[in-house]
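Two entries, shown back to back:
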Amino acid sequence: MSKRYHCEFNDCMCIAFLKDKNKLCNDCKHGEVWHSRTNGPPTDAYLQFYSVRETTRQPTYTNYNDISNNFCLSVDDLPA
């Protein structure tokens, strides 16, 4: 049995042929002949979230309860 991939019927979004008893796809209900024998290029929907870069570090946030000590209360209190 040959493996079938994405459906080529109009704008069908089915990505793989899943056979049922009637030789139709369980997902899109199109016949086996509409499903490609070769795996096509990745779709834009897949590529928009795919990146070859490594993921960045996750930021850590700190909660400062009293931040009033970090700021000057007036312009005259600024260091010279």
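entry 2 starts here
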Amino acid sequence: MSEYNKSNLEIILTKALSNALLDLGPSKNSYSNRYLTIEIRILQWMLNIVRKLRHNLYFLKEVVKNEIDNFKVKYYYAKDKNDIDEMDTLSKSIEILQTCLFLITKESEFNQLYSINGKIKR
């Protein structure tokens, strides 16, 4: 079986998830940590998706964009109901996913700069 090489994106997401889990600590059910639990859930989801789609960054980008759009629709309806807690949760989710989208874009740019053998494309 060949050794699995992690992408830069996967390494960054793994480190972010690890740090978030360390920050969570014993008070994981407290109200003050709700953003941290949102971050952990999204990072876990992202890692699962990245591992499945690691060779297709374009499709990965589309999946994340679609998820952002879904959260935006939910945010719109929460706003109509004036559900502040739901709006905060959705807003934080969108923020985290937009950061992930930025990282996917950077990973894609990195892959375009370097060919398979590691030489810079010109």
